[in-house]
Write a structure and sequence with these properties.
Elements lengths: L9 H13 L3 H7 E8 L9 E3 L1 H13 L2 E14 L2 E12 L4 E13 L2 E9 L1 H8 L1
Parallel strand pairs: 1-6
Antiparallel strand pairs: 1-2, 3-4, 4-5, 5-6
Helix pairs in contact: 1-2
Length: about 130
């Protein structure tokens, strides 16, 4: 089992998660996530739904979802701590394969247990993302 860093606050862990995701640092991401992490994305997102486990999320869902875009960035702006949850408000900024640009606000809710991310929940305007794909 991968060991978490008990000295990091929940917000620091999530900030580190976004930085690691941006840098495609799967090793750090895997240290921040529970082995059985549950990842719930909006059903209106490309390949949206519920995924469980690191491989299902980072080796199946993300490559498929990201294949729809030339660029796709989740830019966090605000981090809100609530005991074992961190809420992140931000913007998806991207370009579809059709060269259509989009900026869509998001809310991400992370649940943390024993310094590990155990659950992720996404809220966003999927229609605006789909409009960029057509």
């Amino acid at each position: 089992m991968r060991k978490p860093n008990p000295l990091m606050s929940n917000i620091e862990s999530i900030q580190n998660f976004y930085l690691s995701f941006k840098n495609k640092d799967l090793q750090t991401i895997s240290r921040l996530c529970d082995d059985h992490i549950e990842w719930i994305t909006m059903k209106g997102m490309p390949h949206g739904g519920t995924y469980v486990g690191f491989k299902a999320i980072f080796e199946d869902y993300f490559p498929k979802m990201l294949s729809n875009f030339k660029e796709f960035h989740a830019i966090p702006e605000t981090f809100l701590d609530s005991k074992n949850h961190v809420v992140v408000l931000g913007i998806y900024d991207g370009v579809s394969k059709n060269d259509k640009k989009f900026q869509v606000p998001f809310s991400h809710v992370y649940e943390i247990k024993e310094n590990k991310i155990i659950k992720f929940r996404q809220f966003t305007d999927t229609q605006r993302i789909h409009e960029s794909l057509n």
